[in-house]
Amino acid sequence: MLFNSIDFLLFFPLVTAVCFLLPHRARWVWLLIVSYYFYMCWNARYALLIALSTLITYISGLLLLRAEALPDPVRRTRRKKLWVFLSFASNLSILFCFKYFDFFLDSLSALLALGGISLRPPGSDIVLPVGISFYTFQALSYTVDVYRGEVEPERNIFRYALFVSFFPQLVAGPIERSKNLLGQLYERHTFDPDRVRAGLLLMLWGMFEKIVVADRLAMLVDHVYANYDQLPGSAAVLATVFFAFQIYSDFAGYSHIAIGAAQVLGFTLMENFRQPYLARSTAEFWRRWHISLSTWFRDYLYIPLGGSRRGSARRSLNTMITFLASGLWHGADWSFVIWGGLNGAYQVAGEVLRPARERACQALRIRRDRLFWRAVQVLIVFCLVDFAWLFFRAPSFSAALGILAHTVEDFRLAALPGQLFALGLDRANFLAALAALALLFLADLLQARYGSLRPWIARQVLPVRWAVYLTGALTVLIFGIYGPTYDVRAFTYFQF
Asked: Number of structural domains, the chain?
């Protein structure tokens, strides 16, 4: 059930109405039932995987509690580490079987072929369960938080099951922490019109990002990437720039709908995006992009590896390991590994070159707080990030190399204007895409300067508020990409 579908537009109001009609003690039961129903709309059998991951991490939490009571500190530490290891090994084994098994066999086959050994692994018809990477990481974070003593183990398995399966953020995040979401399941949530209005407005903005911006840009991006060898290389550059905003609008749109839906129901989810394309360094970009995943890798991989505490060489190694793991988390293909490696290399290079940059700025008397230099930094970071996006978007690593080679060999910038409206978008849709991007960029600028715009809208007089609501709704209805010639497009991050 996609957020941008008629099914969800019928499902969510019903869920909300019943939720607030039920007594407080029964609401979490209702949310657990509808969360599993929501997931089973894709594939009912794979709900068993969520239940299994839930059971493993729930039992791990109780075993960690029992181990904490052991009088011998050495034995206590060993036992706790054992339960954490088994929790990770079990969950990651499930993830490996469904997401990485074919990738591993194909890579092994290619490696053996270099030595003249032929291995033809049988094909697999396993369908990747929607959102498996997201709910697996959310469940694992609970195990670590219990191990560290940051949260108490949840004794009610069904409440814990709701934490793992809460439907607004189940299939594409934000990847919540137990210390934020689990405690909210015990709070009494009353119907608050202001909170509901704010949540619905955020959902409307998310729909605009997804249906008006992302799906429109996807038409050009998909066309160019499928036919790049028949187009000038400059078209691939344009498509890659558009893809940067497509994936941002797609994923941020999902996150905003998820956060808004949870807010309507009375829950507060963590922020997942904070104007990432206004970042002035790649490190800042990753503090603004997919925040729930970036902080997950920081807290549960980078810092346990030693973080930046063991010298610059070890810090660089830890950074590369973290970003390579992040790339592999996104997809079972070498193109994702390269994408992660590039972003890690940007981080390492930024740290290594920082003293030289500062000396150069002092020598040239460059004031980096000036608007011009801030804009230059933003542009440089965008170009670096966008180059890495090419490997993310390409169907394979070899295809990415083919696109790069074709772009260099046959750039033909002068040929692009004549084909501009034949790249998947006609003139009207191309201009609509540019207008939507301008609005998106303006909204990011305003939020970077003043914070969330929703409180400002809420303070306006009734006619102004309703003008904003109706204009937003009509924009989505009129300019959204749907209808008999279009399919409802799944959110990009569903594949992960």
From this structure: 2
Query: Does residue 240 share a domain with residue 150?
Result: no
Residue 111 falls inside a structural domain: no
Q: Which of 189, 223, 290, 330 is catalytic?
A: 330
DSSP one-letter string for 19-43: HHHS-HHHHHHHHHHHHHHHHHTT-
Q: In terms of residues, how long is the chain?
A: 496
- Identity of the residue numbered 99: K
Do 255 and 185 fall within a single domain? Answer: no
117 inside domain: no
pLDDT reported for residue 120: 63
Instruction: Compute the distance between CA of residue 440 and CA of residue 277 in angstroms, rounded to an integer.
Output: 11
Count Cα neighbours of 191 within 13 Å in the Cβ-side half-sphere.
Answer: 9
Mean pLDDT over 177-182 rounds to 93
How far is the C-alpha of 301 from the C-alpha of 322, rounded, in Å? 7
Instruction: Give the sign of the dihedral formed by CA 444, CA 393, CA 132, CA 107.
Output: negative
Q: Contact at 8 Å (CB) between 52 and 93?
A: no
Indicate if 385 and 310 belong to the same structural domain: yes
Average pLDDT of the chain to the nearest whole number: 90
Same domain, 277 and 202: yes
Closest by alpha carbon to 347, among 321, 373, 372? 321
Of the pLDDT bands very low, low, confident and very high (cuts 50, 70, 90), residue 484 is very low
| Structural domain harbouring 159 | 6-103+131-191
- Domain end call among 171, 191, 211: 191
Helix axes 6-21, 233-265, angle to 10 degrees: 20
Q: Is 290 labeled as catalytic in the residue annotation?
A: no
DSSP code for 45: G
